[in-house]
Amino acid sequence: MRRAVLVGLVGAVLLPLVGAVPSAAARTGPEALRADLDEILADPRLDGAHAGVVVRDPATDEVLYSRQADVRATPASNAKLLTAAAALEELGPEHRFRTDVVTDAPRRGPVLLGDLHLRGTGDPTLREQDLHALAEQVAASGVRVVRGQLKADASWFDDVPLGTGWMWDDEPYYYAAPVSALTLAPTADFDAGTALVRTAPGEPGGPAVVEVVPRTDAVRIDNRATTAAPGTAPDVRVRREHGGDTVVVSGSVPAGGAPVEDYTSVRDPAAYAVDVFARVLREHGVRVGGTGAGVAPAGARTLAERESMPLRDLLLPFLKLSNNGHAEVLVKAMGRKARGAGTWDAGLAVVEERLAGLGIGRGTFRLVDGSGLSTMDTVSPAQLALLLDNARQRPWFPVFTAALPVAGIEDRAVGGTLRGRMDGTAAEGVVRAKTGSLTGVTSLSGYVTAADGTPLIFSVLFNDFLSDSPKDLEDAVAIRLAEYRGAADRPREIAPLPNAGADDPATRVDEGAVECSWTKSC
């Protein structure tokens, strides 16, 4: 394991004692790199802001560049690097989530004389099609009528749905969906605890047609959307009312146009899952006497079961698409496994223990959630870089790096949140890094193969800027590292880049303030 290295530009400090500082053009090797990175970070958008940057050479344990390296800052979704590493340590790459259907009720022929329980352990990949597979198993067991209720058992985790420090106005959006041990995702992005709202045109001048996918009574639609004239621009807004189940759909969609799809969080994910399952059971010839909530009795027998994909595969949508719900499920799963409590407190204590084994000392950082959605999270770029360095020694390292977004690769399953950044540059295909975005926060930490073949580790944390998000400066740092040629390096011209964090004033969302995957724009 790498030891934490005192950071500082030792050579730069000693140069005045032995001779004049070389001109910019005469600098070579790390000196040339440092000069160029200094130029990038001199951008006036960072005036008054926090700009923490660390570059490490893992082969030599040398810190090639350091600026505010040990100053803690809000990491945004770079916090997912900490959660992922801890989960791989505690749960292991082969960990799977189990969902089953159980009962302790007696049977009289095809009639179950009691309750049926749908029991979850946090699977964020459970979809309607998986409920069909469970229903098939129940039907195959011979049950046709359930005299009792179909009950949701989400007791594997606690009943605290939202993380500490999450903003109240984020509640309706799918990236802040409630966390539950029993939940459902509408698509293969596995945004658990959400539903897809599809708004299609009706007759011109009349109401739009709104449907929820999957079909459920757990979401109530207040349809205020209209059908506009053909050829007009769609302008649909979907927002769940604070603390309730009603989703207001407003705006307009053009006649003859394609449906507009958006996501909404669901107030009670367990009730949502069991509501959809009750309908699915009916489609398979099994009638239930209503739905409710309740813990399955000890010793209940299993009628149907499903296991999720292993963690090694779940890491791909988790890190590539910066999925907040996956992070929080993993935190609670770690708490349940190691301490018998599926809570944030228990899980984050396990995260701290596991990170200590990866060189990040206890009490030197703060996580109050697993995703980085909370602005109360704080960590330094030096700690992130050290974690990335020490992760290289772990057997799960190939799984970890394969799940990171890859700069400039168009395939969403590969490029993830970096698919539209740094394409056509030296960084394309050679930078693997985790992005992070909140209002006034942007971060990028990961791995890059330099032009001379040297593997480098870097972490960039920008906080408290007032401009559009300066993601282009993160990109410029990563590109410069991809161009680095070791001892033969020379200063390079720093070309301006498109700002991936620039806000489009025509939209209602500040694109730079959230991960692009949260707006489904990457």
Structural features, described:
- The chain has 522 residues and is of the alpha/beta class.
- The protein has 3 domains: 24-93 and 312-519, 3-Layer(aba) Sandwich (Beta-lactamase); 98-160 and 269-308, D-Ala-D-Ala carboxypeptidase C, peptidase S13 (D-tyrosyl-trna(Tyr) Deacylase, Chain: A, 3-Layer(bba) Sandwich); 194-265, no CATH class.
- It contains 12 helices and 21 strands.
- The strands form 5 sheets. A 5-stranded antiparallel β-sheet has the order 2-1-21-20-19, with helices on both faces. The chain has a 5-stranded mixed β-sheet with strand order 17-8-6-3-18, covered by helices on one side.
- α3 crosses α8 and α4 (128-140) packs across α5.
- The relative contact order is 0.17.
- It comes from Saccharopolyspora cebuensis.
- Residues 1-26 form the signal peptide.
- Belongs to the peptidase S13 family.
- It is an enzyme of class 3 (hydrolase).
- InterPro entries: Beta-lactam/transpept-like, Peptidase_S13.
